[in-house]
Design brief:
Order of helices and strands: HHHHH
Strand content: under 5%
Mean pLDDT: 86
Radius of gyration: 15 Å
Distance between the termini: 20 Å
């Protein structure tokens, strides 16, 4: 799940509430139990049904946070040029 907010977005406070809610353990548990997708929260383990549908965790690729951190300024500029 990706969460992004363009530059000069309206209702920034509401967007921040949504982002924080979306990253919470409780919400991430719903990602697994309802959507049957991998949860991003480190304390949420996939259910047996999710494992049956998606296979072992090694089959799933996660974001390259090192790359994203190192290139954040450029990626943010590109995002704002398209969506801002």
């Amino acid at each position: 799940m990706g969460l992004n907010m363009p530059l000069n977005a309206q209702n920034v406070e509401l967007a921040e509430v949504y982002v924080n809610l979306s990253l919470s353990k409780e919400f991430q548990q719903k990602i697994d139990s309802v959507l049957r997708a991998r949860a991003a929260h480190s304390e949420v383990n996939p259910s047996q049904r999710t494992l049956e549908l998606l296979g072992p965790g090694d089959n799933i690729l996660y974001a390259d946070w090192k790359f994203l951190s190192e290139n954040r300024a450029k990626l943010t500029e590109m995002w704002n040029n398209v969506f801002g």
